[in-house]
Amino acid sequence: MTYLQLVNSVLRRLRENEVTTVDQNSYSKLVGELVNDAKRIVEDAWDWSTLRDTLTVDTVADTFSYALSGTNYQSKTLDVINDTSNYFMKQASSSWMNNAFLNNDPPQSAPSYYSWNGANSSGNLIVDIYPIPDGVYSLRFNLVKRTEDFTNDTDTLSVPSSPVVQYATALAARERGETGGTSAAELFSLAGATLADAIALDAARFPSETIWTYH
To answer: How many domains does the chain have?
Structure first.
């Protein structure tokens, strides 16, 4: 669903007139804000299959720091693979990397460690790798890329729409105090149940991620 469709879906549930653009009036703008709040709740609740993506970085000799285009502070790392050398890279702490680079003479070879190190001016995450590459290596970053707030009518939702609509309706009902018979508490309960069902369906694609094992 698009941003505009989501807003109109909420407006209908509130017995309000639909709009032709989210910015049509002050109330539709408010509902748009609540849709973004609801989207954030739903996106943060689970590592949705539709938000998973793989970004490939080709290293440059003597360069250990790279910005990953398309990421932001809400992105989550699933795993990182040195596809050229055929092994999973290990995540290192900032202090470990500082020690490796500042208190030692870092070697140059195939990268085997990575550590996130802030973001650039565009908000893209910066990753440092170790050892310093001695040539071109293809590094695959498997991530969950949660989206920025919607701003355009045509912005499209990637996660299930039903829990987003339900949470936005509940937030709107709480804000104005009535919805014609259904309390905000009941709407939040419905939204939670809808979200749980959506997560259960998507989690079935990744059964190993929901099973706790003792090592």
So the answer is: 2
Q: Which two tokens stand for residue 169?
A: 């309706």
| Together in a domain, 71 and 35 | no
Q: How many residues does the chain have?
A: 215
Q: Which amino acid is it at 170?
A: A
Contact, 94 vs 105, CB < 8 A? no
Q: For the whole prediction, is pTM greater than 0.90? A: no
Q: Which residues contact 18 (CB under 8 A, 6 or more apart)?
A: 8, 11, 12
- For helices 3-13 and 161-176, angle between their N-to-C axes, nearest 10 degrees: 50
92 shares its domain with 19: no
In the chain (215 residues long), the average pLDDT of successive 10-residue segments reads 98 95 98 98 96 97 96 94 97 95 94 96 96 97 96 98 97 80 87 96 88 60
Cα–Cα distance, 153 to 35 (Å, whole number): 12
